[in-house]
Structures are given as C-alpha cells and as structure tokens.
Amino acid sequence: MRYQGRISNWKDDKGYGFVVQNGASEPVFAHIKSFSNRQRRPVGDEIVSYEIATEANGRKRAENIEFVSTSSTEAWKTKGGTFPMKKLIVLILIGIAGWQVYGKYQNRNTDNSNLPETKDENITTPANFSCDGRTHCSQMTSCEEATFFLKNCPGVEMDGNHDGEPCEQQWCN
Question: What residue segments make up the domains of the chain, in order of their start?
Fold first, then answer.
C-alpha cells in the first residue's frame, strides 16, 4: 500500500531523514537509497509517496519513495537545480564585463578629444609627392621632394651624414 507524506528533518550530508504521513504524527525513517528517482536530492517539506516496510527490530521505514509534486521553486532548491542557475549568473557577469571592455575599446578608438594637440610645422605633405620607390638624390627634383621622401618613405638613401637634411650636395644646400 502506498502512502503520501512530507519529508521532514532531511540531513543531506548524511543521506537520510524522515517522512511524516498525511494525517499522522509519527515520522518514518527514509534513506537516500530508498528513492526511486535519484536524479536529484530531496529537500525538506517535499511531498512524496512511499511504501512502508518493517525492519526486524520492529521499526518502520519508507521504501520506493517517489516525488509527488515538484514546483519550480522546490526544484531550484536542490543541489542539481542550483548548478544551472549558477552557470547562467556567471555567463551574464562575463557578458557584462565583456560589454564594458568592448565599450572602453570603442571609446578609446573614437574619442580623441583628450589627446594633446601636436603641431609640427616641419612636416609638409604636398599632394603631388608620394612614395613611388625612388631612393636616391639623383632621382629627386627639389629639396622639398627629397625632404618628403626622407621623412615618409622607407628605404631611402638621401642623408649620407645622418643629420636629417637630405641631398645636401645637390638640392638642400
């Protein structure tokens, strides 16, 4: 015969507790191994159905215990139920942190208002000069062009004494 009752005084660390039958006051011993569904751990005040067996010493114990109703709040109280919630919370926190880092990165790339203004009168970039592979003074037509090539183009060989003035013997004297 099956009975219905509530779990009381459940000690999860020990794996046992008691079941109190509806309308009765005497608790019946219940062990974790007596639960037919072990996908989750029982908690206090859950409604269960069970059979009663009598031990050799005359004590009663609950067997073939099944959960009758599991409300969503009771399911989240279980150890198995809180793990997915913890994962969700961790994922949300990681997402928020990632969004903040992304926002700071975007602001750094677009916000130049707090950068100091620099003015360098020596740099001139006329529209008619461009790095086109010329590297020697003999290929230049003016001091201005040689200066542009020395400052902006890689691999040029126009400053023999390395003083920053290109083509001193031909154009910039």
Answer: 2-76, 121-173
- Please tell me the pTM assigned to this model: 0.40
Q: How far apart are CA 77 and CA 5, in angstroms?
A: 19
Please list, in sequence order, all residues whose beta carbon lies within 8 angstroms of the beta carbon of residue 135, skipping any fewer than 6 positions away. 149, 153, 155, 156, 157, 158
Tokens of 123: 């740099």
What is the token pair recorded at 61? 């114990």
135: its two tokens: 């590297």
Q: Which residue has the tokens 């090539």?
A: 149
pLDDT at 4: 92
CA 161 to chain CA centroid, Å, is 56
- pLDDT, one tens digit per residue, over 121-133 is 555 445 578 888 8
Q: CATH second-level architecture of 2-76?
A: Beta Barrel (2.40)
Q: What is the pLDDT of residue 57?
A: 92
CA-based radius of gyration for the chain: 42
Q: 103 pLDDT exceeds 70?
A: yes
